Amino acid sequence: MLPRRTLAMLISASLSAGCAIGPDYVRPDMPLPERYLGQAAVDQRHATASADLVAWWTGFGDPQLTRFVILALEQNLDLAQVPARVAQARAGLGAANAALLPSGNINGQAARTYQSVETPLGQVLDSTPDFDRYGNACEVNLGASWELDLFGGLRRGREAALAEYQASEADATATQLAVAAQAVDIYISIRGLQARLDVAHWQVQTQQDLLSTVNLLYGKGLAAEYQRRQVEGALAQVQAPYRFSRQVWTQR
C-alpha cells in the first residue's frame, strides 16, 4: 500500500496535468481580401500551365537562367548557414521532449589494491596462511529521476521549441526563395538591358542609313536642307539613349 504522502503527490500531479502556465496559443485571425491585384492573370496562367513551385524559375524555359539560379543557391553564404540553424532548432526540440520523460544514469568503478608487507598490518597479515596481498573492489550505481511537470512549464518549453523549429524551417524556405528571386531579377534586368541595347542599336543604324540616303539626295539637289537637319536631329535623339544604355551596361 502506498504511503499517504506519495499518494497525495500522485493525486496532485494528476489534477494539475491539464493545467499549464500561461494561456494556450491561439492563431490570430488575419483578415485577407478575397482577391488581389493581378489575380485574374495569375489564374489564367495557372490554367494553361502549372509550374514547379520548388524550382519555379524553370517555368521561364531559359536554361541559362536555371544554371545561374542553381549556382546562386549553391554558393550563397546565407543558405550555407541554414542547415546549421535548423539542426540547432531540432536539437532544442529534442531536449525539450526529453525533459518531459524520465531520466536515468548508471555509473560504475573498479579498483585493485595491493597490500604492502612493510607496514605493521602487512606484516601481521603476511604471517597468515594463504594471505592474498591483492584485492579487487567493484561498485555499480544506478539512479533514476522524473521531474513532474506540475505547472506545465516543461510543456510550454516544448511548445516554444517546436515553434522555433518550425520557424527555422520556414526561414530556410524563405531564404532560398529570396536568393532565387534576386538571381532571377538580376538576370531579367540584364536581359532587358541587352534587349534595349539591341533595339537602340537597330534604331541608330536605321537613322544612319537614312541620313546617308538624305545626304546623297541633298548632294544631287533632290532634298532640302531642312530635311537633312530633321534626319540629323532624329539620329541624335536615338543615339543619346543608346550611349546611356551602353554606359549602364559597362558599369554592370
TrEMBL record:
<feature type="signal peptide">
    <location>
        <begin position="1"/>
        <end position="19"/>
    </location>
</feature>
<dbReference type="GO" id="GO:0015562">
    <property type="term" value="F:efflux transmembrane transporter activity"/>
</dbReference>
<keyword id="KW-0564">Palmitate</keyword>
<dbReference type="Pfam" id="PF02321">
    <property type="entry name" value="OEP"/>
</dbReference>
<keyword id="KW-0812">Transmembrane</keyword>
<comment type="similarity">
    <text>Belongs to the outer membrane factor (OMF) (TC 1.B.17) family.</text>
</comment>
<keyword id="KW-1134">Transmembrane beta strand</keyword>
<keyword id="KW-0998">Cell outer membrane</keyword>
<keyword id="KW-0472">Membrane</keyword>
<protein>
    <submittedName>
        <fullName>Outer membrane efflux protein</fullName>
    </submittedName>
</protein>
<keyword id="KW-0732">Signal</keyword>
<dbReference type="GO" id="GO:0016020">
    <property type="term" value="C:membrane"/>
</dbReference>
<keyword id="KW-0449">Lipoprotein</keyword>
<dbReference type="InterPro" id="IPR003423">
    <property type="entry name" value="OMP_efflux"/>
</dbReference>
<dbReference type="InterPro" id="IPR010131">
    <property type="entry name" value="MdtP/NodT-like"/>
</dbReference>
